[in-house]
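G., the chain you wanted modeled:
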Amino acid sequence: MVRACLSFASYSGQPFGCNVYDVLESTVHKNRIVQIYEWFLELPVVIVLAVLWLAGAGIVGLCVLALYLCRVLLQAVVGT
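Predicted structure as tokens:
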């Protein structure tokens, strides 16, 4: 993390690299995400699969909706 911060500093014009608090804050944020993910995976299998299935169905639904809207807009432009 510090190496990436120092290499970024040479491109961003900052002479001394990133602030230590920025590195610590990003590490704490990553640890929080990892804890939430671990908690989610420790739930019963049925709940995890149901949540993942609903999320996948939502993504597929959004793709179908986008395709439908593209079709409607193309029909409106072409006029058929």
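Residues 1-42 form one domain.

Shout if anything looks off.
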